[in-house]
């Protein structure tokens, strides 16, 4: 297949790209966590552990460890690349089907679980939804169509 017409593969991310992605990604988690702390301390601790284990472990060990940007481009959309290189050293481009399933499940839960409690207050619900839309719509449109991370389950770039 050829590259998408009129689009080149991303060689890195601008400061604006990183800022928007990081504010949206960490912001939605913090909004959900803050709102949950208002409702139930045990549930908030459970969600915090899910974030630390599910996202910290699964996303780092599965997605980030196979991403060429921190390893080969010294760049990362979500975190400082040197931190990613330390926490999740590059393991090559291949991700197994079970790893992809675990990654998709953990990310789906990140976005879905807060809907159980987030809409008990209107502003946090709107803010969480807005930040989620930035990621769920922005990433596939702006990045996934031109990404070098060919093993990522969200990659939509033409394989070259």
Compact overview of the structure:
The protein is built from six helices and no strands. Helix content is 62%, strand content 0%. The protein has one domain (15-146).
Which structural category do the helix and sheet elements fall into? mainly alpha
Order of helices and strands: HHHHHH
Beta-strand portion reads under 5%
Mean pLDDT metric: 86
Main sheet characteristics:
none
Shape: globular
Structure description:
The protein is 62% helix and 0% strand. The chain has 160 residues and is an all-alpha fold. The protein has one domain (15-146). The longest helix is centred in the first third of the chain and has 25 residues, at 15-39.
Give short descriptive properties of this protein:
mainly alpha, transmembrane helix, globular, single chain, disordered N terminus, transmembrane, 6 helices, 160 residues, 0% strand, 62% helix, DUF4395 domain-containing protein
